[in-house]
Amino acid sequence: MNLKTTYLGLELKHPLMASASPLSKTADQIKLLEEAGAAAVVMHSLFEEQLTLEEQQLDNTLNYGTESSGEALSYFPELGSFNIGPDEYLEQIALAKKSVDVPVIASLNGVTTGWWIDYAKKIEEAGADALELNVYYIPNRIDQSGSEVEELYLDVLREVKRGVSIPIAMKLSPFFSSTPNMAYKLSKEGADGLVLFNRFYQPDLDLEKLEVVPNLILSSSYEMRLPLLWIAVLFGKVKTDFALTTGIHNHLDVLKAMMVGANVAMMTSEMLSKGRGRFKEILHEMAQWMEEHEYDSVEQMRGSMSQKNVADPSAFKRANYMKMLASFRPDPNSQLP
Amino acid sequence: MKPLKSTLDGNEAAAFVAYKTSEVIAIYPITPSSPMGELSDTWASQDKKNLWGSVPFVQEMQSEGGAAGTIHGSLQAGSLTTTFTASQGLLLMIPNMFKIAGELTATVFHVASRSLAAQALSIFGDHSDVMTARTTGWAMLFSNSVQEVMDLALISQASTLEGRVPFLHIFDGFRTSHEISKIEMLEESVIRNMISDELVQAHRARGLSPEHPFIRGTAQNPDVYFQARESVNRYYNALPELVQKQMDLFAEQTGRAYHLFDYVGDSEPERILIMMGSGCETVDETIQVLRGQGEKVGVVKIRLYRPFSVKHFVDAIPKTTKKIAVLDRTKEPGALGEPLYMDVVGALAEAWTDSNAPKVIGGRYGLSSKEFTPSMVKSVLEELKKEKPKNHFTIGINDDLTHTSLEFDSTFITESKENVRAVFWGLGSDGTVGANKNSIKIIGEETPLFAQGYFVYDSKKSGAVTVSHLRFGKNPIQSTYLIESASFIAVHQFGFLFRYPVLEPIEKGGVFLLNAPYPADQVWGELPEEIQKIIIEKELQFYVIDAYKVAEESGMGNRINTIMQTCFFAISQVLPKDEAITKIKQAIEKTYGKRGQSVVDKNNKAVDIALSHLALVNTPDQSSSDHKLLLPVAKGAPEFVQKVTAEMLARRGDLLPVSALPDDGTYPSGTARWEKRNIGLEVPVWEEDLCIQCGKCVMVCPHSVIRTKVVDKEHLKGAPISFKTAEPKWKEFSEKEFTLQVAVEDCTGCQLCVEVCPVKDKSQVKRKAINMQPQLPLKEEGIKNWDFFMNLPEVKEPFIFDKPNTKNVQLLEPLFEFSGACAGCGETPYIRLMTQMFGDRAVVANATGCSSIYGGNLPTTPWTKNKEGKGPAWSNSLFEDNAEFGLGMRLALSKQRQHALELLEDQEELIGSQLIGDILKADQTTSEGIQKQRKNVEQLKKKIEDQTDPLLRDLYSLSDQLVKKSVWIIGGDGWAYDIGYGGLDHVLAVGLDVNILVLDTEVYSNTGGQASKATPVGAVAKFATAGKESPKKDLGLLAMDYRNVYVAQIAMGSNDNHTVKAFAEAESYKGPSLLIAYTQCIAHGIDMTKGMNQQKLAVDSGHWPLFRYDPRLEDEGKNPFQLDSQKPRIPLKEYMLNEARYRMLWQSDPKRAEMLLKQKEDFTQKHWNYLEHLSKGNGKRSQGAL
After folding, report:
1. Residues in A 158-217 with any Cβ partner in B closer than 8 A
2. Of B12, B23, B60, B64, which residue is the catalytic one?
3. What was the pLDDT predicted at A325?
């Protein structure tokens, strides 16, 4: 069975890879992912906030209360160096590249323009095979238009493309007025791949404390429907690679991703809840399924059920919405009237 | 190759040589010498090698006494060993110093000399400490400048190895230890040539070794002790020549020549001064000017003071000298004269045998870093012109009591006009000093100019004012005094114009740079008229910048350091502008580079945009302003505060005459309330509709600025319109009104109150029952409300006192207020709580440390009294003896009470059996009982006040002791766990009724964050740079072992009611009580607004379990141990990562951080298991649980 695929110009032995997560922070962890069967690994993101906030916090701490009292000119010893900034991250890339054969894709997560380019260059120098840019932006100003938000993404991409030559993937949010148009613009600006979609941080409320609290919930298979739809729509229209992330939990999910046109499927939640062993299990089941259904290769099925290749393209359009609602049958045991 | 020049301070210069030439360094922090130990510890952690390619062992000890013992041991075992100390620390070393000298042991102690605590403690510089060590048999070598510190440190080391006499290497605390100066660094080859390996090996060979055993340290009897004591004479006799030989050897290599006694001045002088230390340089500078005016004057700088070589001394005095004034920087009350004077008189009597011996007078100068200026030098030399010059004089003060002082003309100024002389007024928090230190480095190391920097700090820990004095010039700078004539003055805080004499030293045509929130065309009208007049009269070039605006634009927050630094360089043109900016940016990279690129970027951005905001102000010809200078203290202050305290606050304390000051160190209580500091930019505002009156905000307020009362409605007549009240939430007060008020002028804006407030508005959750708002718009009404509030009666209902909980306690009047402690301080809420509950009958022994500084540092102090004139009586003895000090108070008070009772029993006829019975049987366990006893005592006093019988007079003088007194022994962990632990342990063992409050910040906070035995494993601190390896000492368990000690471990931020309960139980226990209180501190590296939350995390993670051990319960057949917090419920790491002291280790050495975390987790779990075991059993400790 030929499970091979390509993503961002990289040859992968199969399409199931690990997305950025706490399990891909270090070279040792990346090695474990390779051993578990991941075809490629996106490293844990280097966060803009992590870098700048950590630096500012350290600066504030080391300044606070200093040079105010003749008895205590400072409150902490002078340490030779701090392991902050991108150095540790870059070191892990370099170490990973020495110890694994699978491609290692670095990831930058931020929002401010002007921030990316230095780190992108350093990441390229450290040996990363590609770079995923996660522009994690939550617009909260009423005077900011959609096109301004789009421009922000494009600026980041242009800035990075100017500075580095490794392939660049853009990880997007699902909230654009026109996802196809946005994808098209990104491809025109040189994006090598699109990663659909980012899972937005959606805080919860603690009603006892009346506080907004962070609350990360792992994905379910259901959540892959959204990227599934959009990759199906975009396949063949936008000349970039596609990675489907969010909601990949079993071999059927991977197969669906391939059939709508994704080059790869990225998995994290399943691994976080059930362990790295899921890679091999899913791959085995996927191969088995393909054999049973007489597929020769992943390439053969890729995009086979995209909008342009299905018999009824309207299935991915508004018309399908009506069908879906009409298909709803209430639970006979429910209390619904 | 030219030797490397560097800019550094005296401490670093000494430590540089000491580290290079030592194998073992035993350290203990004490101001102003602590940085020498800190540097040594840091260098060792960086694997920096000594002269022999090895990293010295640096060991922190529990006290200077401990350090001296360790040094003695290390020396006896043959290692090159050193230490650094000052003041009381040196005194604690004296017993060992006698031994070390008696055994002819080579070592050097480097001393940043400092005042001794007498009528008061002082951290500043004079020779009181080292003069106390004169009899130890140590050689004493004085350095007068930073260059000399480095040079003579090496000469000391070389001399001690050859001469076998130990050396004190001495330089003036602060003036030299903290002065930054450009000096020539000693190259390793010079050090190598000066330190003979043969002598090092000889030193080693004299060490104890079982391979060639001997005994040293015998006990001797009358037959031989005397002779043996005389056996060392030849070493002392030989030492002066030997030191001179080393000085000559040094001169050959460096070109810098020193002599045991260096004369400088006219070749045929008539009048000379003799002195030691940094003041010599000011004399040197002054003499150069006076000689230019034809005066025949000179100075002998004494370098080797012990052994005092009469021959070399007399040789150094020009034969033409007719009169000599000896200046001592110490005071020896009752002596014929101060030590140096006595030595000079003795030496001349011995060696100047002809009849033309010069006349000698002696005087005191410069105690506690009192300024010593050219005008004072001139005054002394003028005095010598008189036929009968005043002997035993003082200079620099106005002694209007015993008339010792000489007058001086402060307009006599010798500073070179060619030098840049710049004064910067800033706040500690705005980064002014740090920027100036960078400027000195830039100019000192990047230009041929000489540079000097000296920094004056005030005694507050919040809102501290700093004044930087920077000099730059083509010639070496000898001015060891503050700038008297400034060519440039920068005022970095607009408000200072109204409070301090900021422009006083500016010269005509000088430059004035002001940070103001006004543009150039508006600023003039905002200045006080007095400032306008100086600008006009002195024809100043006046520049203005809104540096806070620039700081905001560049992301610098409240740090305006690089902005003002850029302006200084642009205006002063010490360097070409572009070059200066390049250098500033290089300095930024060097200073902040390791903190991350974004930190460098924001500083660079500040530099880039600063100059576009800088503007020259068009100065009008006439002054005209509605703004006036502020009065230093509030109206209505008592006479002492008006006449004395106010002068200190206005920075005119130097002008106060001797008669203005109490002669025995006794000062009035409650002076902090008259100093309105207005440092909180935002202050809390009460929302009476939301408030549940829980008292938490009052409980946590570190500065006692939030207060509540419940009053009769009629008392509210005439209240200001904005005075808020609410219905009280006590059923007992249903007919009254509750009010909460904020002292807006005294608040530091720390926000602890807002963070701890548990109430949220149901329609707008960000609105709490107390919220921060800008102070300025609230100020006027706030002052009126506060004044009205303070005049309302206090709550007197007994249940408030006798049912102690957070809600009730809020209504009790605090008798500790408005201290200079840090904003968000974790210590002061506990102290305030103590004063609320027991303050009107408390006597306090306070260990030296943060609490003695914010508690007792002039000008103003926070301990106060109530309307009846009663309040805590407070005293500070030393650092090491506080438990014993408090025990002494207990003994005295108990003895006096006992004697009063004895006397009372014999006076039935006069006093009456009823009253005597009431007094003897009074139940003073409740507030009601205590009030009753107060009344009994008043009656008693009335009955006997006119009696003349000696026994009744005696009884009258003792009668107040019949009211129960509460003895409190307060201090930090440095005292309780380390230096004072022996005494604390003994006091616990004695079993008398004292209450001990340990404010456990887990680090030496006052001296800048050195590790103590309370520091937890994994925390980074000074002296534990690589993260502390050993676990925190368990003081509570140790105390519980006595079985008769009440012990409680408390954390107000986790459980405030538990804290209140523990205070009440501790005080009521008729034996020793120990309260160990978790106190957040800026040395933890936390967000100080969330200090109380961090206390909670410390408890929730198991780092700080809450418990009480009450021996009374055992008498009732119950388990005396009660575990009061729940099983750890958050990971330790979650608590730790909130604090930079732990986080820094993850950032610098993550593997070690993880390793120490595991240790800490393991220890915390076992510790918890053990406490749980105790709480479930009978409370007795047993083996095997851990």
Report:
1. 210-211
2. B64
3. 65
Structure tokens at B201: 């090996």
pLDDT digits (tens, 9 = 90+) for A190-247: 999 999 998 776 788 999 888 888 877 888 888 899 999 999 999 999 999 999 998 9
Q: Is residue B462 part of a domain?
A: yes
Best of B439, B594, B1022 to mutate (most A CBs within 10 Å, chain A): B594
Could you give the number of structural domains in chain B?
7
Residue B356: pLDDT band (50, 70, 90) is confident
Any domain includes B508: yes
Would you call B564 an interface residue with chain A, using a CB distance cutoff of 8 Å? no
| DSSP letter, residue B493 | -
Looking at residue B1186, its pLDDT comes to 41
State the sign of the Cα–Cα–Cα–Cα dihedral B259, B265, B270, B275: negative
Catalytic position from the list B31, B330, B739, B1001: B31
Q: Are residues B385 and B426 in the same domain?
A: no
Is B379 an 8 Å CB contact of chain A? Answer: no
Of B46, B595, B1008, the CB nearest to A62: B595
Q: Judge if B29 and B69 occupy the same domain.
A: yes
| CA distances to A111, B453, B503 from B537, in Å | 55, 28, 12
Residue B852 lies in a domain: no
Mean of pLDDT over chain B: 96
Judge whether B24 and B57 are in contact, CB under 8 Å.
Answer: yes
| Predicted pLDDT of residue A324 | 64
B607 and B727 housed in the same domain:
no
Which residue is closest to B173 within chain A, CA to CA?
A70
Rounded to two decimals, the pTM is 0.94
For chain A, the structural domain boundaries read: 5-307
Q: Are residues B280 and B361 in the same domain?
A: yes
Chain A contact present for B31, CB below 8 A:
yes
**How are beta strands B323-328 and B359-365 bridged, if at all?**
parallel
CB-based contact A71 B35, cutoff 8 Å: no
**Structure-block tokens of residue B951:** 């026994």
**Closest Cα in chain A to B1086:** A61
Which domain covers residue B905, as residue numbers?
Answer: 895-962
Question: Do B683 and B715 fall into the same domain?
Answer: yes
* Active-site annotation holds for B64: yes
Q: Give the residue on B whose Cα is nearest the Cα of A205.
A: B765
pLDDT band for position B850 (cuts 50, 70, 90): very high
Provide the pLDDT for residue A136.
82
Whether residue B822 lies inside any domain: the answer is no
Closest CA to B396 of B324, B331, B345: B331
| CATH hierarchy code of domain A5-307 | 3.20.20.70
User: Is it the case that residue A319 has pLDDT exceeding 70?
Assistant: no
List the structure tokens of B957. 């003088």
Query: Tens of pLDDT along B802-825?
Result: 899 999 999 999 999 999 999 999
State how far the alpha carbon of B349 is from the alpha carbons of B130, B310, B358, B416, B914, in Å: 25, 10, 10, 40, 74
Claim to verify: residue B1062 and residue B1113 sit in the same structural domain: yes
- B11 a catalytic residue: no
CA distance A218 to chain B (A): 22
For chain B positions 804-823, those within 8 Å of chain A (CB to CB) are 822
Give pLDDT, residue A110: 86
Residue B745 bears catalytic tag: no
Report how far residue A224's alpha carbon sits from residue A202's, in angstroms, rounded to the nearest whole number: 17
Q: Is B673 marked active-site?
A: no
CB contact under 8 A, A67 and B594: no
Among partner residues A67, A72, A84, which is closest to B433 by beta-carbon distance? A67
Question: Looking at B352, B379, B406, which one is the last position of a domain?
Answer: B406
Look up the CATH number of the domain holding residue B314.
3.40.50.920
Amino acid found at A325: L
Say which CATH number the domain at B32 has: 3.40.50.970
Same domain, B473 and B609: yes
Which is catalytic among the residues B81, B114, B438, B678?
B114
**B338: Cα within 13 Å, side-chain hemisphere:** 27
Instruction: Please say whether the beta carbons of B344 and B326 come within 8 A.
Output: yes
